[in-house]
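RETRY 2/3 - previous attempt timed out on the joint model. Re-submitting the same 299-residue input unchanged.
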Amino acid sequence: MSVTIETPRAPRTVRRPRRFNVEKWGWIYMRASGVVLVVLIFGHLFVNLVAGQGVKAIDFAFVGGKLSQPFWQIWDTLLLWLALIHGANGMRTIVNDYASNRLLRVIFKGALIASAVVLLVLGTLVIYTFDPCPAGASPADLASFCPVK
Amino acid sequence: MPEKSAGALAAPKPEKKYPLPKISAPRVPRGTLYRGREGMWSWVLHRITGVAIFFFLLVHILDTSLVRVSPEAYNAVINTYKTPIMGLGETALVAAIGFHALNGLRIILIDFWSVGTKHQRLMFWIVIGLWIVLLIGFVPRQFMHIFGGA
Ligand code: HEM
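RETRY 2/3 succeeded.
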């Protein structure tokens, strides 16, 4: 019986490089989004919790005042997309670290992607279809710029 | 005959010609960049705060989406955020995100700054220092809002 042994110095079979490396771009994304999120989150916290009356001042009229300005619409859209994708991708790393069972991993990652997609669509729709002066609402609840009906 | 071979295996007595270096295991493991000290604990805290912020964000998008339902629905929910208990929770959340953000910048410096790994331990304590400064700025203000009339 003859046994074939690989030539000791045979070149290793080169894996064809993937064109898009998910782990690499995920890694880059965590850092790039992190830098931008520092600005977006501290701005968000300052305007909503520190300036003026803090959390006590937050109500429908306050949000109406902010989301009727394109500046805050863009700010909040960026915050929504960057933070949710950053968080979901971070959670993906953690699932990979701790969920040793293949089925569990599939379930957790499925839940992550489903919740991220649903909330991105919902949040974006809310920002751009929001009416700060809805008809039929009590004027006491609305921002001062709403026409009195 | 057995005592002969056992004797051969024993370590030869060192000649006391030169002073022998004293090597003893440190009482507390020194650790590496990853294990045991600032490197590990910063990672633990980064992970815990990241998860906490993620779950808060899920809820926060949902509660804010109530502005699309009605002013009453939004105000009813946001009013529960103005209670002292939620005010304390909010304080913890700001503390968590403050640490995650500052330590995130430290991670980025470790990865991209040529001497980042060398100074990672010092940078951890700088993160803690800046974090305390941040909280000294935020917490009294927050407590005025949630407990005081101001
Ligand atoms: C304030 C700005 C933020 C900065 C500078 C930042 C920075 C970072 C960095 C650099 C990482 C490490 C990624 C890696 O090791 O590959 C990370 C991980 C993570 N971040 Fe953030 N982040 C920020 C905000 C957030 C927010 C808002 C969330 C939640 C929605 C979040 C959730 C996470 C999670 C879950 C991880 C994974 C932790 C782990 O793998 O141990 N981060 N962040």
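Chain B touches chain A through 39 residues (CB under 8 Å). Closing ticket.
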